[in-house]
Amino acid sequence: MYRSHNCGELNASHINKEVTLAGWVQKSRDKGFMIWVDLRDRYGITQLIFDEERTSKSIFQNAKTLGREFVIQVKGKVIERSSKNPNLSTGDIEILVSELTILNKAILPPFTIEDDTDGGEELRMKYRYLDIRRNPVKNSLIFRHKVAQAVRNYLSKEGFIEVETPYLIKSTPEGARDFVVPSRMNAGQFYALPQSPQTFKQLLMVGGMDKYFQIVKCFRDEDLRADRQPEFTQIDCEMAFVEQEDILNAFEGLTRHLLKEINGIEIEKFPRMLYDDAMRLYGNDKPDIRFGMKFGELNSVTQHKDFGVFNAAELVVGIAVPGGNNFTRKEIDQLIDWIKRPQVGALGMVYCRYNEDGSFKSSVDKFFDEADLAKWADITGAKPGDLICVLSGETDKVRGQLSSLRMELATRLGLRKPNEFAPLWVIDFPLLEWDEETKRYHAMHHPFTSPKPGQIELLATNPGEVKANAYDLVLNGNEIGGGSIRIHDKKTQSLMFDYLGFTPEEAKAQFGFLMDAFQYGAPPHGGLAFGLDRLVAILAGQEIIRDFIAFPKNNSGRDVMIDAPATIDNKQLEELSLKLHLKQ
Amino acid sequence: MYRSHNCGELNASHINKEVTLAGWVQKSRDKGFMIWVDLRDRYGITQLIFDEERTSKSIFQNAKTLGREFVIQVKGKVIERSSKNPNLSTGDIEILVSELTILNKAILPPFTIEDDTDGGEELRMKYRYLDIRRNPVKNSLIFRHKVAQAVRNYLSKEGFIEVETPYLIKSTPEGARDFVVPSRMNAGQFYALPQSPQTFKQLLMVGGMDKYFQIVKCFRDEDLRADRQPEFTQIDCEMAFVEQEDILNAFEGLTRHLLKEINGIEIEKFPRMLYDDAMRLYGNDKPDIRFGMKFGELNSVTQHKDFGVFNAAELVVGIAVPGGNNFTRKEIDQLIDWIKRPQVGALGMVYCRYNEDGSFKSSVDKFFDEADLAKWADITGAKPGDLICVLSGETDKVRGQLSSLRMELATRLGLRKPNEFAPLWVIDFPLLEWDEETKRYHAMHHPFTSPKPGQIELLATNPGEVKANAYDLVLNGNEIGGGSIRIHDKKTQSLMFDYLGFTPEEAKAQFGFLMDAFQYGAPPHGGLAFGLDRLVAILAGQEIIRDFIAFPKNNSGRDVMIDAPATIDNKQLEELSLKLHLKQ
Questions:
Q1: Which of B513, B545, B569, B575 has the most A C-beta neighbours within 10 Å, making it the best mutation to test the interface with A?
Q2: From the CB of residue B514, how many other CB atoms can be counted at a distance below 10 Å?
Q3: Cα–Cα distance list, B125 to A200, B121, B132, B459 (Å)
Q4: pLDDT at A437
């Protein structure tokens, strides 16, 4: 063992002890007659001291050669520091070094190994092994480990069994694009990497393993949006002999446990909201309910006047921005510019100041009088001092736009407090959603989701209206989990494939094994999957998942550190019965 | 919730309680006026009773329709059984059913859902979800979960951090064949699935994460031998600032913990054996030391006579089979046939009976007298009543053959007791091994393994003699883990790639990132990886790993349940810039 202690544990109680430490040179201050070195490891920093009087000449000379990030081992005596550092757990002591071994030299790192580094994103990713030495990244990875351990221990205690499902499975065109793996032994055939262990966990239910979970990597070959990864980690869960209520309770229990164990926060009961209400009140199926600014629908009080924009609109909807009457005209204009950006896409915004004296001043005073505006205030819940922001247009679009505005305002007003946690169940999702591109309905969750009891007949006449036994768990405006009660009989599953446009042959080729399984006694079952990367980030009061992944990929799906993907040998291609077919 | 209790928990203390159970019909006995149904779930079996007098007519009629593996829900009262079954935890009670709901019917399963099933391997794999309903498979999966949990909790308590490393990495020609994943976004380029997270865990050490572990899937595209899987699970571990002794202690600690926690067995200190001794005494680098039959080298006492076979042999070596003098001539002839099979490949066997009266009788009495044979007995440790089996030939071959014979005899003699556990460290493995096919040395462990201190110079003159800081953990004749102290400086690593026949360009292209990392202050480090599939099987007293994998693949790498791998759409191929290039 290269050390008797780590660099974070020595304190005044160890004074006069002989110790051996090993770690990296964080920094070194050479005063000529005296050299201080901050020695760093995973656990902290301990100050080393070399001085002309007390340190042997050769060691003192050697200490002068130490550069940043050198790996060294020292032996020495713990002594009291003359000027203590109360910000450091080891700040009362230092080590008077009697032996120094340079275990490995280091060339100058491309960025500083400090909490606030001078390294940009790209450089940090290329040298991720150096980035991991920095406290913010190191602590994020340790935090992730703690969350995963807490999840496993909680679910195990609750009788769940972690079962490993295969990574080399079968490609199915439904859903997102699969990563595929050519099979050498079965020429011309491919495995696919799982987008989720969905069918396997359902088969485990058919197999009687009635409480399953797995923390598991999943894969999606999608054009990457910011902060999406081609490989990501799920806490995948499934239960048999349960109804929706049981699933909600089980995983509310898990989430409550995490909030308590990891964040020290007790939350009694998670509120529930219908999907339709979430869309109506927040324009969003994952509302951040840490703050208000609920939507107020204003059609009934706006479409009686000559304002053509509102009269033509399917939806007129507003929010009351708390204290927003303080915004200057310039600030409001900037807000309007913000919502007109192509990413949001609103055509404009009507606003109304609610003055402290109870009077109103709107951007459409030409059309609406004080009595009208008072109704707006009433419906949006505005109070004197607030600003009412109103958008109008096509319902789906305008809801999305106002939701973006609401989130942006909340961020600007500091209402999205990272240490406040507001979980929320959103339930009764639609079963299907219309896809403009393919001009047909797709499963909103996935084709194994069961419709609400008694609604299956609606599929024939009004498919968009059918609600599913599907639910999302939302935390602070992020979907951290989602799931559904599944179909568990062959007839309904066949019907569903039929409605989704599968021919019976396609359904059989892709999911025949599942429908076969349903014939041999499938129990009612359902489940939920958490996105671990995001869950961990949010529990840590952050939103960027990349910081919680040891070796993330960039937006082109590349690992810039190891330089992957890369070309492979022709011999490898040949063995796989493949040829490159690059576009010219 | 479909049930108030599970099928394994009700006993006499619940008598008169109203309960709801759900599960599968294990079997049903219809006596006309009375029907008993065994209801099964993950937790056990509970007997249901329907009778003409006490059960309503409609329910009684419904009960008559129940077939094997129907999924049902019943409500009823717990009553005392008239004829109790002491072999069942629920054997004192039965449920007098008052409500019966058929949740799902079942067609007849293709094999019986019993501990001893009538289903063959192939059928069981095709319907693995039914196989998992059987206790032996279900219990194996639960056992695996318990082992994995015990590993995680132990290592976490010891300060190890589980870090997830990426699955989409870079292909390297060294070692076994990679599975590759074509990148759509980077046309013509491929990811590889990891054969192990080796380089990533070393980079984590460079990153200061000084105690790492991960239970992780690994992938090897090899022609599958029996009981090998293309995807398998490792407990992957690495530590920084350690020497070999520290690694051995750390993971001996883990293994001791598992043996205690899982098997209730306390083992004080694991013995250690040099690789050279293991080969000399057991002909094998993973000796089963639950029993004796150590090799005795007989060259010095056999090559002075006229027996040409021995005189020509590089090695003459024997074992004393305890009580083997009881073998009939026919049994010995069968043994000789057994070792002549191509899988073993011996040309013949000389044997010598050690009679109870102290006399000897050998198959080569023509050449060797009693005094000679007494020396054989002395060297092999034979006692009266034993049989000495002697093979001769080229050292490496004959050791392998005698090792096979030793294991076979141990199995026949019942010496490989599944509930006895004999761990063993085998240390000081050679750094390189000669490959006949490519006519060059390959890394025996992998190219990151460090040679023993002071031996690196030997690489130039006598590479086969160089020993490595490499070690295996052996349990009951199976390698359950292996690892090494790694090279941690760029110079040595470059030298090693050089000796292994990499050009500097190849080394840089494939492992440049690792050698770069070594320049920025890499600490001394080393590690070990356990094969979880095998470890679990052995802890359960078994050796077939497939039974401990929920959804294993067959020997052609196929999942016969989901029928993967399979062909993919031309559109998918096109998106990946690939064309099939099948041999005609």
A1: B513
A2: 23
A3: 14, 6, 10, 48
A4: 83
Contact B406, B346 (CB under 8 A): no
* DSSP letters for A245-310: HHHHHHHHHHHHHHHHHHH--------EEEHHHHHHHHSSSS--TTS----EE-HHHHTTSS-HHH
Rounded Cα distance between A233 and A549, Å, is 10
**Cα–chain-centroid distance for residue B272?**
21
Q: Could you give the domains of chain B?
A: 12-104 (2.40.50.140), 138-272+423-548 (3.30.930.10), 291-412 (3.30.1360.30)
Cβ–Cβ under 8 Å, residues B329 and B318: no
Strands A93-104 and A161-162, by their bridges, are: unpaired
Read off the amino acid at residue A557.
G
CB contact under 8 A, B180 and A182: yes
Joined tokens for residue B163: 């870090």
pLDDT in tens, A503-537: 999 999 889 999 999 999 999 999 999 999 999 99
What confidence tens digit (pLDDT) does each residue in B525-573 have?
999 999 999 999 999 999 889 999 999 999 899 999 999 999 998 999 9
Which one of A241, A487, A492 makes the best mutation probe of the B interface by having the most chain B beta carbons within 10 Å?
A: A241
Contact status, residue A379 vs residue A301, Cβ threshold 8 Å: yes
| Separation between Cα atoms, residue A183 and residue B245, nearest integer Å | 42
Say whether residue B12 is in contact with chain A using an 8 A CB cutoff: no
Helix (H) / strand (E) containing B403: helix B395-412
Give this complex's ipTM.
Answer: 0.95
Phi, psi angle pair for B176, to nearest 5°: -75, 175
Gap from A196 CA to chain B (nearest CA, Å): 15
Helices then strands (H, E): number in chain B? 17, 23
> With contacts defined as CB-CB under 8 Å, which chain B residues touch A133?
207-208
DSSP one-letter code for A179? P
Residue A321, amino acid: V
Please state, in angstroms and rounded to a whole number, the distance separating the CA atoms of residues B443 and B458: 15
Tokens of A377: 């205030």
Maximal C-alpha separation, chain A: 93
Among the partner-chain residues A230, A489, A553, the one whose CB lies closest to the CB of B104 is A489
Instruction: In chain A, count H helices and then E strands.
Output: 17, 23
Following DSSP, what letter does each residue of B50-84 receive, concatenated?
EETTTS-HHHHHHHHT--TT-EEEEEEEEEE-SS-
